[in-house]
Amino acid sequence: MQKQEKVMATKTPNSSNHKINKILVYLGDNNEEKWQLVTINDQNALDLYTHVPVMRFDESWKQIYGLAECNKFTAYYKRDSTQLSITRLSSTDQVCSNTNESMFLDVLQNINEISEDVNLLYLLNNGKVMLTFKKN
Known about the structure:
- With 136 residues, the chain is mainly beta.
- Helices cover 9% and strands 50% of the residues.
- The protein has helices spanning 45-48, 101-108; strands at residues 5-11, 20-26, 35-40, 43-44, 54-58, 63-67, 72-80, 83-91, 113-116, 120-125, 128-135.
- Strands 3, 4, 5, 6, 7, 8, 9, 10 and 11 form a nine-stranded antiparallel beta sheet that branches. Strands 1-2 form a two-stranded antiparallel sheet.
- Strand 10 and strand 11 (128-135) form a beta hairpin.
- The longest helix has 8 residues, at 101-108.
- The two termini are 17 Å apart.
């Protein structure tokens, strides 16, 4: 079974800079709500990805953690009703052959709106659905 990691942060109380210590935990934790990619740019994710991207939102730290296909990624986000801004997107740098991972990350960093249904999450750019996720 492949381990999928997420990062959770804690502040060091006695640090003058309030440094953040990164603690590794697993995306595979069943108690965490995760989202699996269904479509990207109107294309079925199963047609494009061997390992379909998955992500989760950490409300307390306003961060997104996920697996883009073969690389892990993280970003910060700010949500105000239906507006969503994603900043400081970064990923690990494993060499991956024949992936559409960069397309996913490029689309993700240009998202500016969000809409939710019962089990679906829509990420939009200027009113156009770019990414659709289902609860995993």
